[in-house]
Amino acid sequence: MAKQEIKLTVNGKIYHLEVAPNEILLNILRDKLFLTGSKYGCGIGECGACTILAGGRSYLSCLIPAVAADGWEITTIEGLAKGEELTPLQQAFIDEGAIQCGFCTPGMVMTATALLNENPDPDEEYIKDYLRGNHCRCTGYIAIVKAVQAAAEKQRQG
Amino acid sequence: MSEQETVYKIIGKATPRIDGPAKVTGKMQYTSDIMLPGMLYGMVLRSPHAHAEIISIDTAEAEALGAVCLTYADINPIVYNERSVSIPAATYRDRTVLPAKARHFGEPIAAVAAASEELAYQALQLLKVEYKVLPAVFTPQEAMADGAPQLYEQIWLGEEKVAVKNNIGVIRNIEEGDVEAGFAAADRIFEHTFELGRVYHDQLETKGAVCAPEADGSLTVWCTAQSIHANRQLLGRVLGLPLSKINVKKLPLGGAFGSSIQVNTVTPICACLALKAGRPVKLISSREEDFYSHQKYPSVFEVKLGVAGEGRFTAAQVKCLVDFGAHQVQPLPYMGCVAGWFASLYRYGPLRFLGTAVYTNKVPCCAMQGYGNPQINFAIESMVDIICEEMGWDSVEFRLKNHRGVGDEFWGQGPTIRSIIKSCGVPESLTKGGEIFAWKERRPHTEKSGRYRKGIGVARGFHTSGTGGPKEGEVIDYSSCMVKINEDGSVDLISALMDHGGGTWDAMAKIVSQTLQVPMRMIGLSPTDTRNTGYDVCTHATRGVYCGGAAVLYVTNKVKEKLLEYAGRILFEHPAALEIICDEELGQGVIFAKNYHQKSITIGEVAKIAQINSWGTIAYTDSYRQRNCPPCFTTHFLEVEVDTLTGEITVPKALLYGDCGTVINPVLIDGQLIGSFNRGLGYTVYESLDVDQKTGELTNKGLLVDYKTPTAAEMPAAENVLVHWTDTYEPSGPFGAKGIGEAALASVQAALANAVYNAIGIRFAKLPITPEVVLAALRAIDN
Amino acid sequence: MNTRIIPVNYNYLAPTTLAEALTVLADKPRVKILAGGTDLIVKLKTGVDIPLEYLMDIKRIEELKLPKYCQRGLFIGPLATLSQLEKDPDLQKHYPALAEALRAMAAVSVRNMATMAGNLCNASPVADTAGPAICYGAQLKLENITNHRIIKAEDFFTGPQTNVMTPQEILTEIFLPQPLANCGGAFRKKTRVKADIAKISATAVLAREGNIITHCRIAMGSIAAVPLFLGELSAGLIGQEMSPDLRREAGRKAAETIKPIDDNRTTAGYRTAIAGLLVEEVLAAAWQRAGGEL
User: Fold this and answer.
1) Which residues of chain A neighbour C42 with C-beta distances below 8 Å?
2) Of the candidates C11, C112, C195, which has its C-beta nearest A57's C-beta?
3) Phi first, then psi: what are they for B283, rounded to 5°?
4) What superfamily would CATH give domain A88-156?
5) Interface ipTM > 0.95
6) What DSSP string describes B550-575?
7) Contacts of B253 in chain A (CB under 8 A)
8) Helix, coil or strand: residue B749
9) Chain C nearest-CA residue for B681
10) In chain B, where the domains are located
11) Tens digit of pLDDT for each residue in B277-297?
């Protein structure tokens, strides 16, 4: 059960970390790197609050032992905006009222970012289906769908 | 531009959330994000038995691992109720920080703190608990039977000891008028039973706390809370510390829906661990632990309604049976509130409410969006549909004729908190909603055939806005705040009022902005705690905007008086001759002499001059209680489609009609109504919590994989989710506003069930209406 | 159980070649293979009793990665994720029932992590890819350090969470033979919400000549101790003329064959009640995909 050294690139920064084999990536991001934007919601891959990106795709950091992520290049919610400048999707979440308590928001934004990476022109059904693993107990999702549509529109216009 | 258009009006405008940037960038700090140097991680040992005496707990091995252990022997055995919204005299007390006896599966028995969660978990496995397992009861019927195992011998009511007989925790009977005479006068009497099971809040953020002992002997607390002051007061009693030595910080909440009105069970445990360890401790519930902490009140209603041929009620009676679990989180006011929601729906004439709430060896129940309102609404609004169907009446017309409206009495929080309704959007929402949804063209179920059958249902509901009233009742209601104008014309708002995500803080900022004519960006929502704020009862009961907002308005108006007085001194004008107009470009409120705008000064200049001249800071602080509890109304017209071969129900179209008085922020109202619709869909079609009848363990083991809530994929098309609000003005509310939050859920369930009836002709009186239930009912008809 | 952490200890190994991995399995006791982790990590977190001394992460073994299509059929490496497969144009074209099953699984982030091999090896009676694997006649290659064997998908499962694999073996390849001409396949499942494991699922793959069924394989999930190949029913349909009555009769027989239980997702009664409907639907959809008319 010896600790192992891993290398993670998170939001462009390189970290060398000593982790135990059973430590979860989510907890490493939060407790060791102080990137607390990714949230614990259910621990078993049901709610999507812990979603991160690697290679532009979404992953559930609550189901990944940190050792298994050795060498990964990860983006967390903290890595999307450039300084004060929000991504069109982040801005759309604010503008469309897609945020209430905000606890699901990081995971939701990450999954929606992956969505737009895959499909810059998604219809409503595609969005709803893509987001079906991200729980939001507050908003009823409609505003979130609209935010993704608005961001897609904005991205298409450049 | 006309002069009218130049007037700054922020109330009613869609404004971006102040906390939006922090929330979309992951920078918003919630309880579980708090980290302190030297912090230990707490974890709770939970009972594997539904009912068991704890003979002994051996902590030696866990301590040898370096863990700090907490058992019953360590705690102050003061008996309390986690919820303190109602007055002490109306509060039964039955619990301690950790119990001497486990009364439900998953109840906290002991706790540890260690350097990591992994280590803490290891330490938990080393705790050796000797239990004497006792027989358990899981239904009210079992619990009330003679000879049934007793959860308690005695509990406390206020300062009185009371004996518990047959596990009955609360009896609450209320009667007004001559009920028997009313039924005798009826042409028809309708009687049906409705049953609503347990569901779970599933707020995204699990309950938790971080507690830090400070060098001066005080304790700093960050916790999931709908009221920081309630937490401080309970911790003070439990820890035996003066309140000045306990400081609870205000944080955003990752959803609540009522789950943190009471002090969360883990918070005192965390505080005790921290004091014992002498180090900061962080204790965050896992999701499965959260399932075992609190659930929504289930209820069974036997409803009896008398009607007269001309389309009105003659009398009403509801018998209510509630299985509230192993501890009281104020089921007494719950029963009063259920009676009140029942009484306030219609002008029945004489009415009677007979309520019994029973202890069982299950997870304690607490408020969850509506505090009994969605439950009783489902029963009564289903009954209205049944009655109208049987009597051949149009149920919209019937509702229009019989609902309680302007001039009628409304019970905002049970029988002791009542006020007269002054604004009411019911006629508008039923009439216009009916037009939008082509209600009059609705076809009966008998004309429907084929595999997929559509139906339209309507139901109306409400919730109170706060728990204020002309007289003191059994529920505490007031808010406090401080408003302070800074020397550059910006404004600090300091308040303990919590925001669960609905945007309460934005509403408060808007009220200040509107009143002082200071642009939104110049309003600061101060980070606060229990030390620097006055008491605020709690953000519950849909009171944020109406009560919290009224307090903010009251205090802001006082500040405005002072501001204008100082401005008058500077401008040589009587304060009454001055007015403030916002200059958004300048980023200032500007004070003008009325009708002589050449004479003006900015708020910032006034504040600066007041400082330089040593007049003092332009600030005010006070508490304020609303003298009313106006209902905010909702009407739901919903269309369902039932797959008669699978029993699956979908909702192709929904009309959500709200009456919140003046709309403070339309985006947020939409959010409340649509979010509530989603949760109502869950309550009606998807969600239920069951326990293993042998062990008392949740059949889903507290795992979200077996507690499905509707996601984006289950929602209707965006263009088919229609949100409307009525043109109403509440004279007692800040800028005419009332609440909306809990009302938004109240009538979803009945509207869905009524729509299902209209589709397939089957009346479901029990929730949830799962495909399994629907298909079995359809097959029963076929056979 | 505590889902905030992995509450068990183990050693972690990450071999980079198959030979290395097989050696580990041959030499060490209580090794569990980690691929996507979406089943295994959940089990570890939720206290499922798994003997575990070594967690062997095989995701760094390049040779186990990609799906490869050729004239003989489709070779699926055990590390191919559900997302990769779902987007594979050859898979979509030739094995539509599998594509449907993949799209119906969980949600996108899980599909980005989970593998089809993991879904099969986990051997849940619910496994969505099992039905299509069975119906497309999948052959599973199981290797240990000394030799390998090929197992038909329908012979792979032995009970809930158990399969024919020995602790020394790795599933190194899933091979889907080239479908027949005029072949069609379809998958349907019923769930509580869209992102969910199945209450019940059905798969059919069939081929036709004119209106006559010339090849037929039907499988169902979540209705018995293993993903079930309805061999007798399938064989009985071959040579028959497709019709609504035939589908209805097939559905009725399927409902009689299955042995469902009550669980958290639904009841045995409900499973039985809609089993026939599901079989009718997959037969109709597969028939249409085979170019047949309804």
Assistant:
1) 44-45, 63
2) C112
3) -130, 105
4) [2Fe-2S]-binding domain (1.10.150.120)
5) yes
6) HHHHHHHHHHHHHHHHHHHHHHTS-G
7) 101
8) helix
9) C193
10) 38-134+207-284, 295-470+628-782, 478-624
11) 999 999 999 999 999 999 999
